Amino acid sequence: MVTKIFTKEEWVRALKGAKDDYRIYLPVKHKDFHAFELLSDETAPDFEFQNTRLSPKSLIFPQSERMFEYSLDEKDGEAHIVKETPKDFYPQAVVGIRPCDAHALQLVNVNFDNPQYKDPWWVKRLESTILVGLGCNEPCSTCFCTSVGGGPFSERGLDVILHDLEDVFLVKPITQKGETFINKLGQGRMADDTLSDKAEAKARSSLEKVTSSIPTGKLRDKVVTELFEAPFWEEVAFACINCGTCTYLCPTCWCFDIQDEVLGKEGDRIRNWDSCMSPLFTLEGSGHNPRSEKCQRVRQRFMHKLKYYVDKYEDGVQCSGCGRCVRYCPVNIDIRHVAKLMNDFAQ
Fold it and tell me: What is the C-alpha separation between 94 and 227, in angstroms, rounded?
C-alpha cells in the first residue's frame, strides 16, 4: 500500500472532489467545541483540535433512529402491520476521527456483531464506513489510551491514518478499503523516506506525552461479588448528580431504549440512546426498580466497563481512554480513580 503526501489545501480539495462517491464527515469548530459535520462546498473543516466533544459514534449508531413504522388506519390495506423503516447505507467516510474513537467502535462492535446476535443496521453502517484517523500530536492531559490497548497513533479499527506534519498530511492506508478511498481522491504524491521518518518520530514523541493511566491488570482476577459489595461505592457515588454526561459523551456506551410514537393514525417505533445513570432505565412495568438508588447506578456503570465486560469478552476493559468523562463530569468523578480502587481492592 502506497503512503501519500497532501498539502492541507490539497487534502480538503481532494475530499470535496470525492463527495459524489462518499458522504464525508469532518471536524468543524463551533465556538469552543468541535463536531463532525457533513462536508459541503461551504464547510470549513478544522483539523487543529484535540478531540470532538461528542464522538462520531452516532454516525454508526444514531442517537435516535426510526426502526419500524405502522398505520392504524383501517382504510389502509396494511393497517396494524409493522414495517421496517427504509434505511440508507450509502458509503461514508469519517475523516479526522481520533484513534481512541476508532478503538471505541471496535469495543461497541462486540455487542452489536457477535455469533449470538447481529444488529443488521449497525453491521451494514460499519461496513459502509471508512475511518480515516488523525493521529494525536498533542494528547490531552486526561487521555489514558495507552493503558487500555490504544495509543495516540494506534491503527486499531482504522482504514487510513493521517500524520499531521505541520504543512502537509502524510496519508497512510491501512486496509484495502482505505487504499481504495485514497486512490479515488486521485491526488497527492508518494511519501519519501524523510517525511516517513519524521512521521514516525512525531508518533513516538506523542506516545511519551500520554502521562495519565489507569491500572487494569488485576481486574479479571477479582471476584465479582466481592467487588460488587466493596465499601467504596458510597464514597464514589456521593457527588454524582445523575446527569448522564458521562454516558452520553462516552464513545463505548451502547445502552438504548425503544419507544412508540403515534401522531393521528400513523406510528413509529424509535430506538433512542439511553443511560444506565437514569432511574427510569431499569424501571420495570411492575413498578419495581432493581437500581432505584444512585449508588447502585454508579456502581453499575463502573462494574460494567471495568469488570463485567472484562469477564465476558476477555478483551480488556470497555474504555478507549479518550478522557471525555473525566473532562466533562460536573462533579469530577474520575474513572481513573475508580479503576484504581477496583484494581487494588482486596477483600
Answer: 39
